[in-house]
Write a structure and sequence with these properties.
Helix content: 55-70%
Largest sheet: none
Structural class: mainly alpha
Radius of gyration: 25 Å
Number of helices: 10
Oligomer: single chain
CATH architecture of the largest domain: Orthogonal Bundle
Strand content: under 5%
CATH topology of the largest domain: Rna Polymerase Sigma Factor, Chain: A
Number of strands: 0
């Protein structure tokens, strides 16, 4: 009796699953799906803001993975390669919906004094990392142009470094930093607009309360 036995899909390492999936092993592909589907779904959801569409895009991303996994050569981490594929799937959907896009080829804004790239672009943004209204932030993210939104989600939400984002998006590190800088600037504007709208609503509500006549009966009316 043969002493070798097939390793169950759930026991496969990622590297083994990749190799076997490239040979057409469906169980190995299922292993890759289980390893990565949650993060792929999270990325899709952050980019489109709709659970049903995110689920559909996740399935489309893994369908593309099934078709293209043989092209993976290990030149980057598999997760980075998969997320690049996922971003492309989402951007294709956004293009079909004719949403406004921002080019990733825009040059990094130069520093006024040195003429070189601004050193602070792409760094931590304390104004967006403090204790703020998460609901308003989520709404503001959804209003970003796709190019800004993608880089912001990858960096500030998913935790990718700029060199990784450059690999995923097919752009330079400088362009990634520039897009993130512009995304954060736009988010600040949107958050300030939301705060101003909230303040207006409070003032209107207070004004309406002041204008409501007192309908309680006076002592004479009760007597």
């Amino acid at each position: 009796m043969a002493r070798t036995r097939r390793i169950e899909a759930g026991e496969l390492t990622e590297a083994d699953a990749i190799r076997q999936a490239q040979r057409g092993d469906a169980a190995a592909f299922e292993r890759l799906y289980r390893l990565h589907n949650r993060r792929v779904y999270s990325l899709c959801l952050r980019m489109v803001g709709n659970t049903a569409e995110a689920e559909d895009l996740t399935q489309e991303a893994f369908l593309q993975l099934f078709r293209k996994i043989q092209t993976f050569r290990g030149e980057s981490a598999f997760s980075t390669w998969l997320h690049r594929l996922t971003v492309n799937v989402v951007l294709m959907r956004l293009r079909k919906k004719s949403l406004p896009e921002t080019s990733l080829d825009e040059a990094t804004e130069p520093d006024e004094e040195s003429g070189g790239p601004r050193k602070d672009i792409g760094g931590p943004d304390q104004l967006l990392t403090g204790s703020i209204d998460r609901v308003n932030l989520g709404r503001a993210i959804e209003q970003l142009p796709p190019g800004y939104k993608t880089v912001f989600v990858l960096h500030d939400v998913q935790g990718y470094e700029h060199n990784e984002i450059a690999g995923i998006m097919g752009c330079s590190i400088g362009n990634s930093k520039s897009q993130l800088h512009k995304a954060r600037m736009r988010l600040r504007e949107l958050l300030h607009e939301a705060e101003r709208a909230k303040a207006r609503e409070k003032r209107e509500a207070a004004k309406q309360e002041r204008d409501v006549p007192d309908t309680k009966p006076t002592p004479d009316e009760r007597g």
